[in-house]
Amino acid sequence: MIKIGFLGFGTVNSGVYEGVTETLDYLESVIGEELCITKILIRNKRRYVNEANFELMTDRPEDFFSNEFDIVFEAMGGEQPALDYITLLLMKKIPVITANKELVAKHGPLLENLASKYNSFIGYEATVAGGIPIVNTLNSQLQWSAVEKVSGILNGTTNYIITKLADGKRSFENVLKEAQQLGFAEADPTADIEGFDALYKLQILCKLCFGAWVSDEQFQRKGMSHLKSWHFKAGEALGLKLKYIAEAYYDGREVQGTISPCFIDKNHPLSAIENENNGVHIKTDWLGDFVTAGPGAGKRPTATSMIEDYLHQLLKKNNQTNRKKRVKAYLPDSQQFVLFYEKSKENEINQKIIDSTYDVEEVLQIDDTEKIAMIIKAREKCLPIFDEIEYVDIFPIQRGSNDNNDHGVELTKGGQNTIKVYN
Ligand SMILES: NC(=O)C1=CN([C@@H]2O[C@H](COP(=O)(O)OP(=O)(O)OC[C@H]3O[C@@H](n4cnc5c(N)ncnc54)[C@H](OP(=O)(O)O)[C@@H]3O)[C@@H](O)[C@H]2O)C=CC1
Ligand SMILES: N[C@@H](CC=O)C(=O)O
C-alpha cells in the first residue's frame, strides 16, 4: 500500500487530494498498489472543521511525522518550515512532489542533492507555469538543443490583472481581490505583483534551460503594481500590448534576466495569452522558436501538474515506460460548418437544411462570384448530410473561444425561404 501525506491543504493540495480520490482506480491500476491518504498537516486545524477528511488533519508537525509515508505532496509555500520538512523526508528516502517555487529557486541544489544521495526524488513540475508541462519536458527533452533565450508570462495573477485592467473599467485592487478569491494569488500577493514569484520561476527555468542554478543577483526585477489605465491606452495607440514578462539569456559569460512590465507587438508569441494563462517562449539554435501556453495558476491545473509529476517520477524510477492512458470521451456542444456552393443550387440547399436538424447562422455571397458561403450549426449530433453532395464543399469550423458569432439569420422550417444573401 502506498501511503500519501499532504503538507498543506489550501488551493493546490485540496486539488491534489480531489484528483487522487476521483481517479483512485486508475492510479492504483497504473501504480499496481492500493493508495491510502494517511495524514494532512495544516497550520490551524479550526479552519478545517467542515472538511469531510477532518479526521486526517493535524496541526502538530510531530503528529504528522510520526506516520510512515511513501510519497508526500508539499504545497504549504514559503522557505521555512517547508525546507526542514522536505529535508527530513528526503533523508528518510521519502519522495516529495512540491509546488513551492520559492523553496526550489532558493534551495534547488540542496534538495536535488539530497534526493540523489538518499535514492529518492523531488518533483517540481508545478513550480513553473501552473498546469503547463514545462519542467519535465525541459528535463527530459531539449537536452541537446542549445537554448539562446527563454521568456514568458510566468505569473497568472498579474496576467489576470493586466487582462482585466486593459479595458480601463476596473481598479487594480478590485481585480487583485478577484484573483485572490479565484485561488491564483500567493498567500501574500506582494510576491505576485512585485515579481518575486516570476523571479523564482525564471530561476528554475534558467536551471533547466542553461544547466545551472542561477543566483537572484543575476536578475533585475520591476513590479507591476504601479500600472495605470493610461499605460494600456498608450500601448494601444502605439499598436503594442502591455504584458508582464520574465526573460533570461546566456551572454557567453553568465545568465542574465529581467522581470518587468513590457510592451510587445501583436505578432509576438505571448501576445494572445490572457487571464491566468501563462506562456513560455524558448529560442534554441536548431529547433528555432518553441512556445507553450496554458493555465498558469489555480486549483485544478496545478493539481494536474502535481499528480502528473508524481506518476512521471515514480514510473521513471521504476523503469516503467509503457503505462495505461486515462481517457475521457469528448462531446462537442455544437458543431458548425461552412458550406460553399453555386448560387444556382440555393433552392436545393435550402430544402436540405429545412429537412435537417441544422440551423443557418450566416449566409454570404462572395464578391464578384456566383459562390455562396453559408455557416450552419448542428442542433444535436447530426448525420453529415452534405458530405456526399458533389456540388457542396464543406469545412468544419473551429473557434478559439465560446463566441458563437450569434448574428446569423433564420430559416423557418417548411415556410418561406428567409435566407438573406449579403454582398
Ligand atoms: N495557487 C496556485 O495557483 C499555485 C500555487 N503554487 C504554490 O503552491 C504552494 C501553496 O499554494 P496554495 O495552495 O495556493 O496556498 P494556500 O494558502 O491556499 O494553502 C497553503 C496551505 O498550507 C498550510 N500551511 C501554510 N504554512 C504552514 C505551516 N507552517 N505548517 C503547516 N501548514 C501550513 C495552510 O494551512 P492553514 O490554512 O492552516 O494556514 C494551507 O492549508 C505555494 O508555494 C504556491 O506558490 C504553485 C502553483 C500554482
Ligand atoms: N501566484 C501564482 C500561482 C502559480 O504559480 C500565480 O499567480 O502565477
UniProtKB/TrEMBL annotation:
Top enzyme class: oxidoreductase
Catalytic activity: L-homoserine + NADP(+) = L-aspartate 4-semialdehyde + NADPH + H(+)
GO biological process, one term: methionine biosynthetic process
InterPro entries, A to Z: HDH_cat (IPR001342), HDH_CS (IPR019811), NAD(P)-bd_dom_sf (IPR036291)
Superkingdom to which the source organism belongs: Bacteria
EC number: 1.1.1.3
Involved pathway(s): Amino-acid biosynthesis; L-threonine biosynthesis; L-threonine from L-aspartate: step 3/5; Amino-acid biosynthesis; L-methionine biosynthesis via de novo pathway; L-homoserine from L-aspartate: step 3/3
Domain annotation Homoserine dehydrogenase catalytic: ranges: 133-310
Molecular function per GO: homoserine dehydrogenase activity
Keywords: Amino-acid biosynthesis, Methionine biosynthesis, NADP, Oxidoreductase, Sodium, Threonine biosynthesis
Family: Belongs to the homoserine dehydrogenase family.
NCBIfam families in alphabetical order: PRK06349.1 (NF004976)
Protein name (database record): Homoserine dehydrogenase
Protein species of origin: Anaerobacillus alkalidiazotrophicus
